[in-house]
Structures are given as C-alpha cells and as structure tokens.
Write a structure and sequence with these properties.
The protein is α/β, with parallel strands linked by helices. It is built from ten helices and eleven strands. The strands form three sheets. Strands 5, 6, 7, 8, 9, 10 and 11 form a seven-stranded mixed β-sheet that branches. A two-stranded parallel sheet has the order 1-4. Helix 3 crosses helix 10. The longest helix has 25 residues. The radius of gyration is 23 Å and the shape is globular. The protein starts with a helix and ends in a 15-residue tail after the last helix.
Length: 278
C-alpha cells in the first residue's frame, strides 16, 4: 500500500468512527425524561425506617409507603416501572448527582441544594417537631432547647440538622448517619431529644409509645417538601413533575397517600395534632 492509499484508509477509518460516535449520540437519551421512557425504569431512592414515607418489609425486602405509591403513579404515567436504591436523607442528593437515581422524594429545597440539583413544585408542606426522651420537659419554644446542656440528636445532612443548627446553635448537637440511630440515642438517654418532620415523629411515637413525647415548639416551623431531580437544560421532566405535584396536592390525593401509609402503623387523621400541617 502506498502512502496515498494509507492516508485514504486512515481518513475513511476516522470518518467511520465519527459516524459511529454520532449514531451513538443520536440514540443516547438526552435527558432524564428520555432515559426513563427509553429504559422503562424510574429509579428512586428509598430510606429504611421512615414511615409513612418508606417502609421495608424485612421478611420480603419489599418496599411500601406513601412515596412508593407516589413513585408508582409517576412511573405509570411515563410507561415505566419503579426500581429502588436504598439510601439516606443526606446521600440521596449525592445519588442524584451521580446519576444513580432519577428521583428523590421529600426533599426540602434549601439554597445550598439548589446549587447542585433541581426541584419540582412542593408535594407537601411539613411542620418540624421535637421528640423528647422520657422525663425531659416538653419545650414550648425552640429557645427552651437552645442551651449547651441540651443534647439534640439529628441525622447528618438532613433538614432536621439544618433546623437544629439554625434554631438551637447553642445546644449540643449529636449527628448520626441515619435517623434511626438518632432516635435510638433518645431512647437510650444519650440524647435529650430529636428534631424531625411531624409525619415522621408521629409515626415513630406510634410504633414506640414508650420512647417519649411529641412537642411542637413555637414559632411553628414549616418548609415545603419537593421532589428532587438532576439539574438539566431540558425542562420537560421538571415541568411534568411540577404539574403532577400541583394536581395531586390540589385534589387531596397526596394527603390520601399519606393517610393510607399512616394506617399501616395504626394512625388515623385524628391522631395528628391540629397544629401540624401535611
């Protein structure tokens, strides 16, 4: 082969490689919505011990709960099935960034999170509460537990921790990887109290009535709870989820999913303190 033929061969090979790369790029999903529709799978983060959001049956390893019902409804509208990845409140943001999941539930839209992920419209508005250990005086205000001698247990990276550090900066804050560990710290007396979203606190005390008491300190603190997604230029997925969230919240369907999940731990709407929103 002479030099001219060799150059022609190289040029043809390069053109073929470029064409192949272009074809691959054309068939690769360009957004989360495209990927979900193409694969038929909606990947979500699930978190153990977080009734009524998530519940794991240890005998079957099957997941249930309000967020599972929501995920199945979303997936059905996209012609997909739900696939779960076990995570934590803090880690699910990292899972989104690493493209391990397509959707994170019950994410509070903080400014810091908005720098790295995106959000749908709120699915709920939640109140923050305090679970106190037995014998510890129920706080009427956040100022009553904002003291160095008060030990507050929270799960690291959660909005529970954000609230604790914002409203109780003088307290001794104990961070744990998972919320279950923070609750255990209260039950064993290692911590005086735990800060949690109201829906989680109510369910926790229903399952563990000897744990302590529920307090709703003033001022009443509420934050929207949204769906978390990856930040991307294509807005179709975000717009779809926002429309889904607005529609189901307005119809009361989201509340019904929560009440259904509450029933699994023996709770009804009457068991929810009137000042708690959800």
């Amino acid at each position: 082969m002479n030099r001219r033929d060799a150059l022609t061969t190289v040029a043809l090979a390069g053109a073929a490689m470029a064409a192949a790369a272009s074809a691959t790029a054309d068939t690769a999903p360009s957004s989360t919505l495209d990927r979900v529709k193409k694969s038929g799978v909606l990947r979500i983060a699930v978190i153990a011990g977080q009734d009524p959001y998530f519940h794991k049956d240890l005998a079957t390893n099957q997941w249930s709960g309000a967020c599972i019902d929501m995920a199945n409804d979303i997936a059905g509208k996209l012609g997909a099935k739900v696939e779960t990845l076990e995570s934590t409140w803090g880690n699910q943001i990292l899972d989104l960034q690493a493209e391990k999941i397509d959707l994170a539930f019950a994410v509070n839209p903080t400014p810091e999170r908005a720098l790295v992920i995106d959000f749908s419209s709120p699915i709920l508005v939640h109140s923050f509460t305090v679970i106190t250990k037995k014998g510890f005086a129920k706080p009427q205000t956040w100022a009553e537990i904002n003291k160095p001698e008060v030990k507050i247990a929270v799960d690291i990276g959660s909005t529970h921790e954000t609230i604790a550090r914002r409203y109780c900066p003088k307290a001794t804050i104990l961070g744990f990887k998972e919320r279950n560990e923070a609750i255990l710290a209260v039950s064993t007396g290692r911590a005086d109290c735990n800060i949690s979203l109201a829906v989680l606190s109510v369910a926790t005390l229903k399952k563990n009535p000897t744990l302590g008491e529920l307090a709703v300190p003033r001022p009443l603190l509420t934050l929207p709870t949204n769906l978390g997604i990856r930040a991307e230029g294509d807005r179709r997925y975000k717009d779809f989820l926002s429309a889904w969230a607005d529609y189901n919240r307005a119809l009361g369907q989201t509340r019904e999913w929560l009440l259904k999940a509450f029933e699994t731990v023996g709770l009804s709407a009457e068991d929810i303190p009137p000042e708690i929103q959800f």
